[in-house]
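seq/struct pair 1
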Amino acid sequence: MEWFKGLNVGVQAAIISAAVSIFLYILGALVNWFREKYMLSYKLKKEYTFNQKMHIKERLAKSKTPLIKAAEDLNYRLWDFSVNIDKGWHRNNDQEIQTPFYGYYLKSFVYRLLSFFYWIDKAENDIYDFDFSLADKSDQVYVKYVKTMENFFCEKLLIKDLIADNPEDSSHHFYKNVLSYFISYMENDGRLLTFDQFTSKVENDFSPIGSVFSYIREIQNNKDDPKYNIIISFHLFLMLFLNKYGLDYQQTDRKKFHDIVEKKYKDKIVIKKELLSFLEQNKILNEMTWIRKELNIKTNRNSFFATINK
């Protein structure tokens, strides 16, 4: 650095000033580069997240309204069934099912249940094109409701104690893969069959959905009946789904909810422990305050982890 010391003070100052300017220019360029890179990455991430959330909402909205309507129709039938189960309107045999203008109650019951499954399937499949981990919390809760309602009819461990004498009996639940066959039966040219189209098809050949007819017509008003335990437990859950997402006229107030539990369901539901674990496994237990209180079931830290029949 002797050469630098030997320079005129003015020259030294000029060199130092130039060096500082160059350093600051390089530093500024580096800062700008890193900032633009970070901002671009941040902007792209925000845009991706926003687009995913928007597309998820738009896709769910397409099936949400018809699903709620199907839930409403099924809810009305289950209310009626809770009053009229002992009249045997749901017990038509195969020949009666295929007789025109006969067996309306059973046919309409099956139609409402399968229409519900149809829209459940649409709602569930709506999310698979997107990164659902980025969905709003409200959409995530909605899909939990959707998946739980489907799982009610596929969860064999819900009724494990009731079928302990014959654990291989598969007539009390549906395998998830089989639901797709039911849904295909209910569809024509990409649209859900009307009830008239459905009855005409049933009267010609109902074998692809024969197990659904058997499921409904075998339900007995008996606390030891696995199907009845499932259907009435599901009904309670369905009412809470409509209370959360339906319009006011589709909802059930607390008194009416209490009355049906107290007068019809409370003594007939013997799968309370399994129901609690099932709701816990489906990550929806916190939404089920009414069910827990009305059935007097308490949370249990040592819950089992069920395996859906696939």
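seq/struct pair 2
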Amino acid sequence: MTATPAPSVRLRSTVKIALWTAATLAGTVLVSAAAVLLSGWLIDTVRRREGGLDRAEGISQIGNYFSAASAVFSGLAFLILVVALLLQYQELRLQRRELADQREELTQSRRELHRSAEANMRSLHVQLTRMAMEDPSLAAVWNGFPGIPHEEERQYLFANLTFGHLLLARQWGSYSDDELRVHARSLRGSEPYRRYWALSRDAKFALPRDSHERKLAELIDEEIRTAPGPPAPPQ
């Protein structure tokens, strides 16, 4: 699922950019209008001072005054445009930063929801396993270890819970692979756990190679196979 910015954020950013653009245009228009008005005033002043536009010298002076005024106001208009563009650029930077923060928050929220869902599923699995451990008739429905006495089946169900605990710790990053190997070495000393592993190994190795469960199974299997003495055969 791809995170999308909130409509209010997009609306605020669009409004701000539109306002800056309108302010830039308005400033340019005002400066241009002021230049025209001031130029007219300068022309009229020069005309009265020089005695009319018929005189070449007066026309030359009027042109000089007009050129100077136009240069000043053109520079002011350009300065206003540059300032407005800089403000718009700053606004776009703030907008991108705000959107990046929102995407990070959404990603973190999805991550937490996913972990919460995994924890709830794990809790449900523990409850179902406990029910199967306490009631042989329910264990028969699960049929995870057919043909095995219920007392021994309870051990295997508990061993499967320990595997699920290590799997969840690996998925959440609570344990590194080196730490998981330490736990696997502790479990390999348990004869019931080795029997459980002999019965469940093939099912775990049938999973996709890139899955967390398959990788954990490979790690535990390696530790059990390197344990002193042969693994206990299933009974």
